Amino acid sequence: MTGTATAPTEVDRPDLGEDVDSARLWITIVWNDPVNLMSYVTLVFQRLFGYSRDKATRLMLQVHHEGKAVVSSGTREQMERDVTRLHGAGLWATLQQD
Amino acid sequence: MSTVFRGTRRGPAIRFAAGEVVLLTQLFEQLLQLLEAESDDVAQDSDPLVELTGLSDSPAPAVKPTDPVLARLLPDAYADDERRSAEFRRFTESELRTGKQAAIRTVLASLPAASGRVVLTPEQSDAWLGALNDLRLAIGVRLEVTEDSYAELERIDPSTPRGRELTLYTWLGILQETLVETLL
Lengths: 98, 184
Hints:
Chain A is of the alpha+beta class. In chain A, 40% of the residues lie in helices and 18% in strands. The longest helix of chain A has 14 residues, at 53-66.
């Protein structure tokens, strides 16, 4: 059983001569971990992001089966805040450019 | 191992035996000490102004802790960018540590003096969730638990030291699982 991949939101990127951090989307990735309980990960996704039980469960299953999942996207600052909160909850998360 | 959380109208409730209280106290106090230990990877600067501002002429980048348990509890934020991870760690690790310490202290304060029943407030439930998870991560790292450990967990030999630790790890998992169930 696999979870449906949640594709990051497509954004029209301005045609600039160089990469500008603020113009590109950043994403937060949660990585699989053999210790964390599936029920706990689901609860964390619901609480931190306000996701429905359904969406939180799908993301958790994606982490579990595929090794990782994109759980949020936005500016770099927003993703750093998300990663901080996820680390506070004991999940292993990183951020990167989309 | 029948000690589990149950949902009640007033909140998640649990009844601990005296030995369980002693055990949990020891484990959480050890984890607290680990989180409080001065990081050996950050250069100590005796200039009080530097300590106040966190700024220095030659800032030492904060690196991931060498202790594998701490490294898991305080992980890098950028998977492939050491410089950005170090920068992020320098500004955020302290708060992450104190947050985890505070959760453990709340848990320790909520335990009965000997055996007894506890009903958790929402604040205490959050603290238990986080602290239990951190404790399980710590033990999981020490025991080198992997995805393939589940077979081992189903046939634990309690006469061996590792068997006893795996039994403990399993019990903590049941505690956390039953707590989560009362909150979902």
